[in-house]
User: Fold this.
Amino acid sequence: MSVRPTGDARAVTRSPNLRLLTIVLAAACGLSVANIYYCQPLLDLIAHDFHTSQGKASIVVTATQLGYALGIVLLLPLGDLLENRALTSRVLLVTAVVLGFAAVAPNLTTFLILSTLVGVTSVVAQILVPLAAHLAPEGEQGQFVGRVMSGLLLGILLARTFSSLLAAAWGWRSVYAISAAMIVVTALVLARVLPQRRPERTPGYRYLMSSVWRIARTEPALRRRAAGQTLMFASFSCFWTSIAFELISGHHLTQTGIALFALVGAAGAAAAPIAGRLADRGLGTAFTGAVFVLAIAAMALAGFGAHSLVLLAVAGVALDLAVQGHQVLSQQEIYQLVPAARARINTVFMGTVFLGGSAGSAASGLLYERYGWTGPATLGAILPTIGLGLWTGSQLLRRRSAVVVSVG
Assistant:
């Protein structure tokens, strides 16, 4: 089966079987984005190894997410300028080198610098998602992107389990060494399997960067969706940054126990293809409010049910379903705005989202150190509440504007 690319169809050649392409894109997204999340359940081990506090160790998560946001701003627009197959495979090789150095970092300062670079180069996942939209069969963009996003989300959600199990067996540094090897293999597979995609000619990198800000200014739907997902992802970061501390201190779990707990989050990947199908049917707007409500309920349950592992697990599943569902609904909408500039649209969207995520991680660590689990759980509930308010307000304004136009 051949792929009928959308948008700049002439820019894509040698399209492989659609099923193989889906698997490769999903796996590559998952393996590359997982690098950002490996550190979350390892913070207690990292703090002990580098002789520092839990609050300072949590800066590792913030540094990695800030690096990812920086990579989105600086590297992601290149997806609209350079041939995508070569770009993604080469950047992944750089990621592998940085991961290798992180595995032998001698102190926290060096590790923070390397963690930032890991974040910068792991942006390959966000180059591949808009590429999936370009390669999708006509009329199936939401479903195809949703399937690829399932791989990305599994990478996010299983990264904690993977890193916890490896840390329990061979120490936390083994996580970075093994990831480096997997990323090398991923780069080679992408170079072999991905079709070439040469974007439409643009004046150059400076033009791309200036057009990113122009797109952000002129597309209100993009700003609205980015703001909502930023708040959702900040809530997500509050939960997953501090939950390992709570599981160790409040429930006395080992790294293996944390790994098993983190498995519950994998259920959130089921939201991606479902949300993609809903978006393709024109139901994205209706279900956006519902996922905000689900996120609020999840964090409220996490706060009130901290004494119970079962309730914390249910809260984790619900939160992941809500956050990932909102992301797919958002991306299906924004990728239709300017098809030839999907990488730049993703730059605005994901750059904003990960700035919010890094802020949520930093705040979560500080709040946990001062107030215990109640601090990050409360903040995690407030953030999607604000998002629901903004979304509801924007929908009311749009309906009012539509009524005024129809009357006029």
Summary: Strands lie at 12-13, 196-197. Confidence is low (pLDDT under 50) at residues 1-14. The CA atoms of residues 278 and 287 lie 8 Å apart.
